[in-house]
Amino acid sequence: MSSISSKLARKTLLIVGALFLFLCGCHRELSTKTYVTSSTPIIPTTATIIKEKTRTPTLTPTTTATRFIEASTQTLTPSPTSTALPGNLSSDAEWWQDTTFYEIFVRSFYDSDADGIGDFNGIIQKLDYLNDGDPSTSMDLGINGIWLMPIMPSPTTHGYDVIDFYQVNPQYGTMDDFKELLTQAHLRGIRVILDLPLNHTSVENSWFIQSQDPQSHYRDWYIWSSTDPGYRGPWNQVVWHPLNGEYFYGFFWEGMPDLNYKNPNVTDEMQNVTRFWLGDVGVDGFRLDAIGDLIEEGSQQIETPATHHWLRDFYQFYKGVNPAAFTVGEVWMDNAIVAPYVQNKEVDLAFNFDLSASILRGINEINPGIITAEVLRSKDLFPEGRYGVFVTNHDMERVITQLGHNPQKAKIAASIYLTLPGVPFIYYGEEIGMSGIAPDEQCRLPMQWTSDQYAGFSTTTPWKPLQSDYASANVNLEQADPLSLLEHYRKLVSLRNNNAAFRKGEVFANTCGDQSIFSTTLLYEKNVILVIVNLSDRAIKKFPLNQNAKILPAGSYDLVDLFVTSHPAPLEINSSGGFENFQPVDQIQGYETLIFEVVSANP
Length: 603
Ligand SMILES: [Ca+2]
Ligand SMILES: [Ca+2]
Ligand SMILES: [Ca+2]
Prior knowledge:
Blueprint: H1 4-16, H2 61-74, E1 101-104, H3 120-130, E2 145-148, H4 175-187, E3 191-196, H5 206-211, E4 224-225, E5 240-243, E6 246-249, H6 264-281, E7 285-288, H7 305-321, E8 326-329, H8 335-343, E9 349-351, H9 353-364, H10 368-381, E10 387-389, H11 399-402, H12 407-417, E11 423-427, H13 475-479, H14 485-498, H15 500-504, E12 506-509, E13 511-512, E14 517-524, E15 527-534, E16 545-547, E17 555-561, E18 571-573, E19 579-582, E20 593-600
Parallel strand pairs: 1-2, 1-11, 2-3, 3-7, 7-8, 8-9, 9-10, 10-11
Antiparallel strand pairs: 4-6, 5-6, 12-14, 13-16, 14-15, 15-20, 16-19, 17-18, 17-20
Helix pairs in contact: 3-4, 6-7, 9-10, 9-12, 12-14
This protein binds calcium ion (CA) (3 copies).
């Protein structure tokens, strides 16, 4: 779909204008129609915008001291700590900070009615796999948020070009089916957010069809010009498309005309849409698609002041509808450009694409410094933990594919991102090691439930052929294997649910005498966690860890192994509140993950 020359052209553009260039976020695939404009994802280039810097973590010493004087008189208890999540919805307006999301492509998750297409009832039938709502059982994955890729009627399989914002795609079920899915999810303590593509509609949307009449009330809902303005988009794509002797603006491709947010009627209508889903239907929030592209100012098409202004108003609007409503924004750019969306209250969270890229690169290059640098940079740029942390999503080649099809590397990718601050997003099938190489549709294939025909996804031929490895990578097999990738994910999500330090803690990078070790300390009130991950395939006998920041009062602390079974050495905190040359166990195996809770030795 995208030619090499256009990729090169984009790359050149990126280098020339790194600061404001656009890395578009979603729906970069073409439908089966004969549209020629490519909108394949651009891989973010390295962050040249702000020079990466490691920062010395700062903790207010007095606060820490006070906190731990209290702690020592109150008895620190081993895990899990005080914050186990309830089996139903919390009333906390910032519930999303305690949430692990799971991204679902409905078409590919589970087909309940044998038409080869996944549907709402299929998700209902598989909810117990995600979270059965019973904290005492541990066969379920334990996630407590679902992001559904677009569920509204659309002529394409991906659904990012919406025909009617007030309906559900009949291929996925009825509105009542969807409401039942919401009810069943909420009963299990799972919140549900919807993908909301605000920037554009389908060409088949009735608004756009009416807009083609110059006399129509809908004319100015889109952006028309009687002559071709001539300029192109940030990656040299055609953005002005001829129709009926005139031209309309469509940033991504001619099948997705941009809405005109300079027209207050459009804003009013999208507020109605938002109110409808939040208020009438009862969803918990939205993943806001491609929000950097909303409002053009002349030939400046992305990141305009008008877009930021609109989003600030929109934030106030949806919080007014429901203070607990949540948004996560997709801005596929450098974090220096992304973070202001969160800082300025335009969205609750934004996806951290730089961190995703650094995790993959750090693992592939066995260079933990790449990852910790981005972790610390994120800590600098974003308000505390207010970013979505993930490895890949529906627009990217799947994790295990990018990690040389090595399940051990897939495990450590999970160990790293599911123990970081931020709000994690697991892409469906990632937890069983589904593979997928570009184009996008190959990374959105039917979920692999069993080794049976059609992988247990359907009883008939699925809408797309299955990935060929489904007989060796599927839920059934991995649920029976304590060493599987799925089991690894389950353990990590469970630890996250039971330890606030992962969800809201402050993160500190530990340095290590061995260059292959990724290690962090996470700190939230009395919950202190030490994470150690070996990025190499070799067992390492000497991996002394150091921490220069003041994390705890001086003294001796015990470690409780939360992940495997070991007998770790006590941790000596030095007079500066950190530690030096600390090695909890004799050796760490290749690709091994160690996670300890630090507790008082003398309660
Ligand atoms: Ca179906
Ligand atoms: Ca459970
Ligand atoms: Ca736009």
